[in-house]
C-alpha cells in the first residue's frame, strides 16, 4: 500500500475548501486546509506536503507573495514543492506571470473538479 500524498489547500472560501477536500479525499489524498498565505508558511514549518493548491486572492498574505516566500526557503525540498494556483482572476494574469512568481500551474474558478483532480495527479505522478 502506498502512503497517501499530502496536499495543502490554501483557500479563504469554506465552500471551495470543503468541495476540494471531498474530491481529493475520495482519491485518498491527505488534505490540510488553511485560509491565508501566512498559515501556509506556518504549516510548512511544521509539516511536509507533496503539493500546495494556492488561492491567489487571500487575506493576510496573498498566493503570489506566499509562493515567492516558499520559493526562497532555505529547505530546498520545501522550496521546490509543486504549487498550483487557484484563481478567479486568471484574466489578470498570464501563465507566464504565474511561472515568474514560482507557480507550477493554475486552475481557474469556478473550479472544474475533474480538471483540478487531473492537475493534482499530473504534479504528483
From TrEMBL:
Residue positions, PTM 4-aspartylphosphate: 55
One Pfam match: Response_reg
GO biological process: phosphorelay signal transduction system
Keywords assigned by UniProt, alphabetized: Kinase, Phosphoprotein, Transferase, Two-component regulatory system
Transmembrane segments annotated in the record for this chain: none
Domain of life assignment: Bacteria
A single MF term (Gene Ontology): kinase activity
Enzyme Commission number: 2.7.3.-
InterPro entries reported in the protein's UniProt record: CheY-like_superfamily, Sig_transdc_resp-reg_receiver
Residue ranges annotated for the Response regulatory domain, each copy included: 6-124
Protein name: Sensor for ctr capsule biosynthesis, probable histidine kinase acting on RcsB
Species in which this protein is naturally found: Indibacter alkaliphilus (strain CCUG 57479 / KCTC 22604 / LW1)
Lineage of the organism: Bacteria, Pseudomonadati, Bacteroidota, Cytophagia, Cytophagales
Amino acid at each position: 500500500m502506498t502512503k497517501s500524498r499530502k496536499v495543502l489547500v490554501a483557500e479563504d472560501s469554506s465552500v471551495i475548501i470543503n468541495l476540494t477536500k471531498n474530491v481529493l479525499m475520495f482519491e485518498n489524498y491527505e488534505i490540510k486546509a488553511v485560509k491565508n498565505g501566512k498559515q501556509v508558511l506556518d504549516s510548512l514549518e511544521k509539516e511536509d506536503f507533496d503539493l500546495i493548491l494556492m488561492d491567489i486572492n487571500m487575506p493576510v498574505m496573498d498566493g503570489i507573495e506566499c509562493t515567492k516566500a516558499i520559493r526562497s526557503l532555505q529547505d530546498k525540498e520545501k522550496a521546490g514543492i509543486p504549487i498550483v494556483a487557484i484563481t478567479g482572476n486568471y484574466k489578470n494574469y498570464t501563465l507566464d506571470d504565474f511561472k515568474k512568481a514560482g507557480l507550477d500551474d493554475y486552475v481557474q474558478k469556478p473550479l472544474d473538479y475533474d480538471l483540478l483532480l487531473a492537475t493534482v495527479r499530473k504534479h504528483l505522478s
